[in-house]
Amino acid sequence: MSLTHIERQGDSPLYRQIADLLEREIASHYDAGDYLPAEHELALRFSVNRHTVRRAVDELVHKGLLERQHGKGTRVLQPVLHYTIGRNTRFTENLEALGLQPVSRVTRKLLLPASGGVARRLALAEGEQVILIDTVREIDGLPYCLISHFLPFAGMEVVYQDYQAGSLHQFLRERLGLQLQRSESLVTAVLPMGDDASLLQMPRQQPLLRVKSVNREQPGDRPVEYSLARWRADLVQLHMLP
Fold first, then answer.
1. Are 144 and 232 within 8 A, CB to CB?
2. S-S: 15 plus which of 56, 104, 111, 123, CB 3.0-4.6 Å?
3. Each residue's pLDDT tens digit in the chain (242 positions)?
């Protein structure tokens, strides 16, 4: 094993130099799920004691890049997505701006009578027809988010008939001229329900972030869409804007 040079007389502490170097190597040479070499191997490589290596690894654990697994080693985690939720947030456009290639797939589409919270949030009478569209949002084949979209059926029949995949809000802009704005979002940490854990490829005991949102054309207008998003809490950090 070759030694790696670090600056022992510089201003930056040894553990910080090692952490920075490991972070660059993780970004360029490691995939999520890979394991770092054992701490004693890293100590030999950098010619430092194990305490210094352990402190460097701690830095990356705290940053969410690594996870210590008892009896196995130190595992590389999937990078956390920093996702901004604002008035005009659009999933596809947001992620493309970050250089990512998101995919939105429809897993279910049906008509059902509005009731309870769905009827209230869409300002519909009980029993009025609504469109339910369930979608899964993936990045590089990994599911990050499930979204259930509820829309009034009256006047939006084309959505039920023609929407198949991709950005729903882009479809609404292009086909109906609707430019939606988020009027409210409620975020709660919950455990997966139904088949959410299976669709998101995550353990059932691991929490997710549930975001309930109402979208309108203009503030004060009648709601056009109520959405219920479930994000993998281990893969995303939500940044809420007013």
1. yes
2. 56
3. 445 667 776 678 899 999 999 999 988 888 888 999 999 999 999 989 999 999 999 999 888 789 899 889 999 987 777 777 777 766 666 777 767 778 889 999 999 999 999 999 999 999 999 999 999 999 888 899 999 999 999 999 999 999 998 889 989 999 999 999 888 889 999 999 999 999 999 889 999 999 999 999 987 889 999 999 999 988 888 877 76
Same domain, 37 and 112: no
Cβ 169 vs Cβ 156: under 8 Å: no
**How many residues can be counted in the chain?**
242
Nearest to 149 by CA among 161, 166, 162, 132: 132
Both 91 and 32 in a single domain?
no
